[in-house]
Amino acid sequence: MSSFQIVALMVVAYIMLIAAVSVIARKAGATSEGFVRGGRVFPAAVIGLFMASEVVGTSASIGTAQGAYADGISAAWNLGALGIGFIVFAVLFAKRFKQLDEVTISGALERAYGAGVRRAASVTMIASLLLVATAAYVSGGAMISTLLGIDAGWAVVIVGVLSSVYVVIGGMRSVIYTNLINVIVKVVGIVVVAVSAYFAAGGYEGIQVSLPSRMLDWDGVGWNQMGAWLVAGGGAMFATQYVVQAMTAVDDEGKARNAGLYTSLVLIPYGVLAAFIGVCAAVVHPDIDSLQALPSMVVDLSPFLQGVAVTGLIASVFGLISALTIGSSTLLLKDFYQPYFNTSGDERKAVRFARLATLGCGLIPVAAALFASDVLGVTFLAKALRASLAVFVVLMFYRPSYGSRQGALVSLCLSLPAVVGWYLAGDPFGIDNAYIAILTPLLVMTIAQLSGRGAKASTPIAHTPEPAAAVSAAGSFREGRARTR
C-alpha cells in the first residue's frame, strides 16, 4: 500500500468509529434537554478529558506550532494559559457554577444581571465560538490540504460537513463520548510528531546551533504577550459556554472541581509539545509558511506514523468543532428560539431547531475560513471576547454589589465592537485587545458604581442548606402536600 492509502485508511477508520458512536448515542438527543445536556451524569475524569479535547483543536495545535516557528518555545504559553485558567476555574468557580446548574453562561449571568444581559452575553459568546470555529477550519483545511494533497477550500468544506453532521446525530452525549476518543488520538499523535521532530532537528544540540537563543527562551514572546494570553486565555475558560455546559454533566460540586483540574493536566504538556514541534520545524524547514510548521513535520514521518499523526490532527478539528457547534446551538435554543418562537414549549420543534442550529453553526464559519489566515490571532480574539464575560463571572460570584445591572448591559454592548475594532486596528500603542476586553467592562462598571445609579445585581446563588436540613425540609414538604390531599 502507498503512503497515501495507509493514511487514508486510518482516517476513514477513525471517522467510521466516531460515526458509530454518534449513532449509538442518538437516543439521548430525542429531547431538547437530552440534546444539550447529554441525558445523564458522567465521572469527573470523563468530563475533564472531554473539556481538554474541546480546547485542543487544530487552531491550538497548528496555531501554537505556527507561533513557535516564529517566536520560539514561549508560544507554549498560549495553551499553558488555558491550563492555568482551568486551575483557577476549578478552585474558584466550578463549585459555584455547579450550584447554579445552568446549561448556558448567559443563563448564569441572568441570575445576577437580568434578561437584557443574558441576550447580550449570548450574542458575545456565539460570536466568540464562531470565530474559534473559523480558525479551526483554517488550520484544519491547511493541514488536510498539505497532508492529503487536496484543495484547501475543499478541505475546509469537507471538515465542516463531517464535523457538524455527527453532532447533529447524537447531540451532547455523542460529543462527550467521541471527544474521549479524540483526546486519546490527539495526545498520541502530538507525541509521535514531537519525538520525530526532535530527532529530525538533530536533537537539542542541533536546535541550539541552528536557531537564535531567543527561540528557546520561555519569555521570548515578551511579557506583554504572555500577560495577554493569561488574561484572555485563562480568563476565557471560566466564561466559556461549553465549559459551563459540561459542568451540568457531573453530579456534584467536588466532581466539577476535579474535572477542571484533570483538564489542566492535559493542556499544559500538550502546549509544550506543540510549541516544540514548531521550533523543530524552524530548524528542519526554515523557509516555509509558518502555518505549515506542524503539517510539514507530519509529512516527514513514515506512512504508519503519518497516519497516526494525521488522524490525531483531524480528531483535533472534530473535537473542537463539535464543542463549538453544540455550545452555539444551545445558546440559540435557550436564549432566542424558546422564549420568542416556541413559547408553548413544543418539544418536537425544540429538538428540530437544536439540530438545525447545530448544523448551521458548523457550516457558517466555513465561508469565513476561506478568507482568514492568522489562526492564532483569530483564536486569541475569540478568547478576548470571552474575557469580557469573565469580568462579570468574577463580579457576580464575589462582588455582585459592584456596578449595576444597567452598567453590565452597557458594558457588554460596548465590549464586542471595542475589542473587534481594536483588533482590526492592529492593537494600537502596543496594547493587546485582551486588555481592552477586560478594561471596557471594568471602566463602565466603575462609573456605574461611583455614580450610584441603577439597580444592583442579585446574588446568583442562594444559601444552600446542609444535607440533613435539606432532607428534613424535603420531607416536611412532602408531608404537607399529603395532608392537603
Description:
The protein has a single domain, classed as Sodium/glucose cotransporter (Up-down Bundle), CATH 1.20.1730. The protein is 79% helix and 0% strand. It is built from 19 helices and no strands. The longest helix is centred in the middle third of the chain and has 49 residues, at 152-200. It comes from Streptomyces iranensis. It is found in: Membrane. The chain crosses the membrane at residues 6-25, 46-69, 75-94, 120-140, 152-171, 183-201, 221-244, 265-284, 304-333, 353-372, 378-398, 407-425, 431-450. It holds the Pfam family SSF.
Task: Write out key terms for the chains shown.
mainly alpha; 19 helices; 79% helix; globular; disordered C terminus; transport; transmembrane helix
Terminus-to-terminus distance: 76 Å
Biggest sheet statistics: none
The total tally of domains equals 1
Morphology call: globular
The CATH topology name reads: Sodium/glucose cotransporter
User: How many helices does DSSP assign?
Assistant: 19
> Approximately what portion of the residues adopt beta-strand conformation?
under 5%
Mean pLDDT: 81
- Structural category is mainly alpha
Percentage of residues in helical conformation: over 70%
Tell me the number of strands.
0
Pfam family, one: SSF
GO molecular function, one term: transmembrane transporter activity
Transmembrane segments: 6-25, 46-69, 75-94, 120-140, 152-171, 183-201, 221-244, 265-284, 304-333, 353-372, 378-398, 407-425, 431-450
Organism: Streptomyces iranensis
